[in-house]
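Q: For a teaching session next week I want to show students how multiple molecules come together into a single three-dimensional assembly. I've collected the sequence lines for a complex. Could you give me the predicted structure tokens for the whole thing so I can convert them for display?
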Amino acid sequence: MTAGILTIGDEILIGQTIDTNSAVIAKHLNANGVSIKRILSVADTIEGIIEGLESLEDDCDIVLTTGGLGPTKDDITKHAFRKYFDDDLVFKKEYFEKVKKVFEERGFKVTEAHINQFHLPSKAELYQNNMGSAPGMLFEENGTLFFSMPGVPYEMEHLLVERLLPILKERSGDNEVYHRTLMTVGAGETTLANQIEGIVDQLPLDASVAYLPNLGSVRIRFSVSGNQITDSKAELDRLFLQMKEKLEPFAYGEDELPLAKHIGDLLISRHLKLSLAESCTGGHLGHEITKIPGSSAYFEGSVISYSYLQKESILGVKKETLLIYGAVSEETVIEMQKGIIRFTGSDVSISISGIAGPTGGTPDKPVGTIWMACGNKEKYFTKKVMAGKNRLKNMEYAAVHALNLLRQFIYEVY
Amino acid sequence: MTAGILTIGDEILIGQTIDTNSAVIAKHLNANGVSIKRILSVADTIEGIIEGLESLEDDCDIVLTTGGLGPTKDDITKHAFRKYFDDDLVFKKEYFEKVKKVFEERGFKVTEAHINQFHLPSKAELYQNNMGSAPGMLFEENGTLFFSMPGVPYEMEHLLVERLLPILKERSGDNEVYHRTLMTVGAGETTLANQIEGIVDQLPLDASVAYLPNLGSVRIRFSVSGNQITDSKAELDRLFLQMKEKLEPFAYGEDELPLAKHIGDLLISRHLKLSLAESCTGGHLGHEITKIPGSSAYFEGSVISYSYLQKESILGVKKETLLIYGAVSEETVIEMQKGIIRFTGSDVSISISGIAGPTGGTPDKPVGTIWMACGNKEKYFTKKVMAGKNRLKNMEYAAVHALNLLRQFIYEVY
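A: Of course. Below is the structure for the complete assembly, covering every listed component.
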């Protein structure tokens, strides 16, 4: 089964909104054996939407659209569908009454705009949206399914997973898509490719490989797909293990495992508690760690020290250290690393101090200079990273390196 | 001038990578008067790429592609271009020598894969990439420009801004695109739309309006475009001010101003220093604040207290408060808010404690229950938010509400 995704909205075409919906849809469909042929984004115009529907209907079994279903005036998707299917708008009274009831229970007022929202194409089969007022609309014409969802991400995902996927599961055939992904950190694309070249050459003919680099880390994705892929899958599984072993120092896990989740697993298995002393990353490292469900089992907490005063008073960094070496120095991050352990009583800790930019650099310490330490009460590793000029990227880059440093420390010491 | 964007990569079509490149390209082009007709994502296949190029060439003056230029085997964009333009691959020795020199200076080894990378279509004019090895490629055929860039986001943006935009500026005509965006927080799309309905009706005929909701906030974008838009622009500017006034309690700024930047401006103008005591948001609020350049001028630091122990010992929350009311309670966030001020000496502070989920809820306090306080030494505001089941969304939602609460506190008290 093949699908096409059409995301509708001027905000996407002017770059004001990043289209995250397509990735969410693609992930869910793929996991259910539906492969995506194309993703297309068009403006909020009836012609644009109609052209988009036409181009996708051509070679897709199902076309999914997001956006343009809200109660305000810019929402014109329903008019495009009406025209595309040569249909009329009718007042969907039954659905409206349901929504009205929910609104009244919550003390919201139903407005003219809401009533207008339920004038919808007569051919649309409506699917209830528990997260908002706009329902999902399903059309079936000339053997193609069309499913229209709102653009608000959590409403879209709710309709996709709870309403559409059960329908697709019923209808899908035997086509299968099989992915294995190797998660690596600390080496570039070419280094990795060279190391596993000999093994990649042995992969089955229908397999494909993709290297997906991101700040400091690379995912390597292997895929096979088709109707009869049992053998290819087994062969891929066998070689995948070999490649993982070959890339040992860099490969830390599989299948979209976040590095922070891997660190969490390491900490749990060794009964260690972690704390952080963040300066230039300003909370980003803590966020990376705590966005993993269950992180409260091993994360003790952290101090974000944005001033000299706090580095001294809270973390116990010596005044002389700050005066002689500065806040961005190996000496300071070591004292921060020890200080946060004293402060929180955790077993291991990470500290980071750097110049995130875009200003604040000096000739010795240009923007992007970042020092980090990680260790326990006795031992520690330190690392200096020279990043770029982009503040947010520097923070993200520093967090990846810091997590990787902790990984190495745990491997070595525990 | 019109443009089409083609992003190439299986990783996009299986949802493994969110296509952020398109938004970055769209933003830059739009700001330079180039409007985007369509954004299309296709798989790493020669036919897919060629079909994509064809469909965009039709009605776009320029077609931009990203992805598929790296040194590894999955990179086939150059073969698609070669075929599309009926061209041959030639060894671009001059560019290769340059890259080799840079590699050698940095102590990297040039491999077979790298040499292979510089066999490129003969018709391609190469543009130097200072951030990586793959150059930008420019083709001009049948009056259409084609510009191919790598998929790595910072390499792409570098080539776009430093190499392509100067060329486009030289060639672009008089077409103009004009946007004004109103940033709001604390009200839904329908509430906002109702309040400004009367003014929106007076907008010039060529103006369009879009509501762009996100967790707890809505951007409202007004646009006019064309060759002669001086009058429409003036009229939009006039009505924009009226709408901003009308939406006073919710509208905090314009033109993509992040809420955290606005808070920073408020703090600076009133000479206030801020500190945070985060529990369930785990650093996310600190990250939101510190990713704003210059935030060190007003951000004192924070404590992330993930355990009872730390709430007591560091923030001075009373043992009885935790025992009687629990960590997620109004009483606890008030003591945290006061505690972090004592601890850091800041003027104002925010505290947050909640159940981020996906587990850990109780019948009284289900997942998504989040308490927050903000204030100074004497006064405070508190707020309880009932969010959803998604851990990451709950953190983001809580941060928006907390910033908005601080905004209200500053307006009222200072």
